[in-house]
Write a structure and sequence with these properties.
The strands form 2 sheets. An 8-stranded mixed beta barrel has the order 2-3-4-5-6-7-10-11. Strands 8-9 form a two-stranded antiparallel ribbon. It has a single domain, classed as TIM Barrel, CATH 3.20.20. By secondary structure, it is of the alpha/beta class. The protein is built from 6 helices and 11 strands.
């Protein structure tokens, strides 16, 4: 098994209420040992609803990259990001590609999980091609649940990873980094649970950490380390 945990626990609380972002994201690439350079952090935003074409020049003054949904985001019926990749690229944004994962209640049996994993992998790959993302792009499955996942969910992730690989893309998960108490002295995060599963193929893990923004609502901050800027964000 090779499950890559490419994240660090960094909690960032940003005053972004005027633009009503869902999250702020930080990307910190790990540079090759052959050419050591100081690490750099890249600030981005994660928002379920596309902010609008007119907002992009203003956003680019602060943010280096944006999340980009290939499916309707959690709680949404429509995907307002569809067809906006070229425009984001023209403004110089890097892109973190997301696909909405299922709720555990949808994966009642192992058969359900495998079928759903295959369907979602194929759907996300097709959407990525339609949007113009290159082969090898990491597609991050957004998992809203925290703590230990069910055995069926791990079956789903195994199929999701393998089918994406066959389709020419890389599998990732965008999940919680908050410890959930299971027993008196035992806690688990979703990222740890996924990393510990020997049945999974190579999966890139990003941690979503809950934070409170200036609006007093719940936002997410993300800190990610990547081996190469091209590996995760296209273009830079």
């Amino acid at each position: 098994m090779r499950v890559l945990l490419v994240c660090s626990f960094l909690l960032c609380v940003l005053c972004v209420s005027a633009l009503a972002f869902s999250a702020a994201l930080f990307i910190t690439p790990v540079l090759p040992k052959a050419a050591p350079e100081p690490s750099r952090s890249y600030l981005g935003f994660d928002r379920n609803v596309y902010p609008g074409d007119a907002a992009l020049p203003v956003l680019r003054k602060t943010f280096t990259f944006a999340s980009y949904w290939l499916s309707p985001p959690p709680g949404e019926k429509l995907n307002t990001w569809k067809g906006k990749r070229k425009l984001l690229v023209s403004h110089g944004f890097g892109i973190l590609v997301l696909y909405c994962g299922p709720d555990s209640s949808e994966l009642k049996t192992e058969t359900d999980a495998k079928e759903k994993g295959s369907q979602d992998a194929n759907a996300s790959a097709a959407a990525a091609r339609e949007e113009g993302f290159a082969p090898g792009t990491i597609i991050f499955l957004d998992i809203e649940e925290g703590g230990r996942l069910s055995p069926a969910y791990h079956q789903y992730l195994g199929v999701w990873s393998e089918e994406l690989k066959r389709a020419g893309f890389r599998a990732g998960v965008y999940c919680s980094g908050i410890p959930v108490k299971e027993e008196a002295a035992v806690t688990i995060t979703t990222a740890e649970d996924i990393r510990n599963q020997a049945t999974l193929q190579e999966i890139v893990i990003c941690l979503a950490i809950r934070a409170i923004a200036a609006t007093q609502r719940t936002d997410r901050a993300l800190s990610v380390e990547v081996r190469s800027r091209r590996q995760l964000l296209r273009p830079w």
